[in-house]
Write a structure and sequence with these properties.
single chain, 431 residues, alpha/beta, TIM Barrel, six-stranded antiparallel sheet, binds 2-acetamido-2-deoxy-beta-D-glucopyranose, signal, Glycosyl_Hydrlase_18, disulfide bond, chitinase activity
């Protein structure tokens, strides 16, 4: 008996040492929180920087600032929101709105008081920025230099920890075939500029990119190992794959993890797993820890033709109605979805698709495909546990149930579930 105890004790010490060695040798997973500053305009439930729980995130990405199409300066598209009282934006989109007021960039930077380890970045570009403008900037050293000088000034002025570049998408739309190469040059020059800035400020800077996740976008625009040489990490937005459009009106989920055998060949590529594997297939397995899987905190909705027409592939009438807070057709925040369900749990049919590994719900002629605490856990097990990626990005943190409208176990139930599962893999991953 005592021998057994001694043996177990010995084994226990051995296992503990083994584990702690492993944990020490490994960099921890990132949890990147995209923050949409315009969430302040949501009626009744305005979101402000102070609403962000900075201890949940390792990085907060303030989204988005613009880049001038002619002189490649970084500028605020919404000075009233982004800049401080009396500060003026020299190059506003809207001349009537060029004076700062709410100071949200600084109020986001101030979150470092709550969590000294959190890194606050701004994202440049996004859906409102033309691919051509980035292409013109990136192609030639003189234009890149204008952009980077302006960016460094911004980083210094607001005491940011770095920047994210969201070029949607290199080599796509009105971009150019050589954009993929130019994108690497931009990241290379930005890294050099940050290294230079460090010699003056003594601080380190984080450089990231926001990337699309479909095969066409990846093929046309991303030299993954080239980019990985210079960036801290790349956030892969592996969602919004399928939704209602004029040409595709049949029910589909926007963010499946895996496909169904019965899916068409093109549809089999529209999953998070396919996107991640396709990135890795670009000679990127050795830099997998620089890839971060993006998970959305929104659902995509349909209005059904009839209550019974609620299965995948069946035709729909159109986009679902706007949410009472986010006010956009066809899209609902996670907190609007759980709130809707909570108002009348009995009215909703809940389903979890065991091929796609995602939840969807329907009620009469309303259909919602989204991610919940269970599907994000499955995505993390795939991305971190199986594919050894470097973390998760949540887009947007302000779509999560920050005010605990749904009276869940905690505020930010989605981000909290992500954090918990990332911690699990930090403890349990063998390397
Ligand atoms: C913020 O999140 C942490 C978990 O990371 C939690 O312990 C804490 O209670 C949260 N803070 C607030 C104000 O909700
Ligand atoms: C650099 O920017 C200028 C001004 O926008 C533009 O005319 C020029 O074509 C750009 N250079 C390249 C190589 O794209
Ligand atoms: C390095 O930074 C200093 C100060 O910001 C600047 O004057 C200089 O031009 C920079 N050098 C390079 C090579 O970017
Ligand atoms: C910056 O990074 C270097 C190398 O990783 C590290 O040694 C140093 O402590 C960091 N400095 C700060 C101020 O975080
Ligand atoms: C693949 O990556 C390795 C280093 O990670 C590099 O040495 C090699 O040149 C790359 N091969 C190709 C075809 O890009
Ligand atoms: C609905 O509200 C109850 C408490 O009233 C809570 O226990 C439950 O978790 C909520 N459901 C959802 C889906 O958030």
């Amino acid at each position: 008996m005592s021998f057994c105890r001694g043996g177990l004790y010995f084994l226990g010490v051995f296992v503990l040492q083994f584990l702690s060695l492993n944990v020490a040798a490994q960099e921890s997973n990132v949890l990147v929180c995209y923050y949409n500053s315009e969430s302040y305009y949501r009626p009744e439930l305005p979101f402000e920087p102070a609403n962000i729980n900075a201890t949940l995130c390792t990085h907060v990405i303030y989204s988005y600032l613009g880049m001038g199409a002619e002189i490649y300066n970084v500028y605020s598209r919404n000075p009233g929101l982004d800049l401080g009282p009396g500060e003026t934006e020299p190059f506003p989109d809207d001349p009537d709105n060029s004076i700062g007021e709410l100071d949200f960039i600084r109020k986001t930077v101030v979150l470092r008081q709550d969590n000294p380890a959190v890194k606050v970045l701004v994202s440049i570009g996004g859906p409102l920025q033309s691919s051509r403008s980035f292409s013109n900037m990136a192609r030639h050293v003189a234009n890149r230099t204008l952009f980077i000088r302006s960016l460094i000034k911004y980083v210094d002025l607001y005491e940011l920890d770095g920047i994210d570049l969201y070029w949607k998408y290199p080599g796509n739309g009105d971009g150019r075939p050589e954009d993929g190469e130019s994108f690497v040059y931009v990241m290379r020059d930005l890294r050099a500029a940050f290294t230079n800035l460090t010699t003056f400020t003594g601080r380190n800077y984080t450089l990231t990119g926001t990337l699309g996740c479909t095969k066409n976008v990846i093929d046309a625009g991303y030299d993954v190992t080239g980019l990985a040489q210079y960036v801290d990490f790349l956030n892969l937005l592996c969602f919004d794959f399928k939704m209602y459009t004029d040409s595709t009106s049949n029910i589909a989920h926007h963010s499946p993890l895996f496909h169904k055998e019965s899916d068409s060949d093109p549809d089999k590529q529209l999953t998070a797993a396919y996107g991640v594997d396709y990135f890795l297939s670009k000679n990127a397995t050795s830099v997998s820890r620089k890839l971060v899987l993006g998970i959305s905190a929104h659902g995509r909705t349909y209005e059904l033709g009839a209550p019974d027409y609620n299965n995948f592939g069946q035709p729909t009438m159109g986009l679902g109605p706007p949410g009472s807070f986010t006010r956009q057709q066809g899209i609902l925040s996670f907190y609007e979805i759980c709130h809707e369900v909570n108002k009348s749990t009995s009215a909703w049919q809940f389903r979890y698709d065991h091929d796609y590994r995602i939840p969807y719900i329907c009620n009469d002629i309303m259909w919602i495909g989204y991610d919940n605490e269970i599907s994000v856990k499955e995505k993390i097990d795939f991305a971190i546990g199986t594919k050894n990626l470097g973390g998760i990005a949540i887009d947007f943190i302000d779509y999560d149930d920050f005010s605990n409208l749904c009276k869940s176990w905690v505020s930010y139930p989605l981000a909290s579930a992500i954090k918990e599962r990332l911690n699990y893999w930090e403890i349990n991953k063998k390397r």
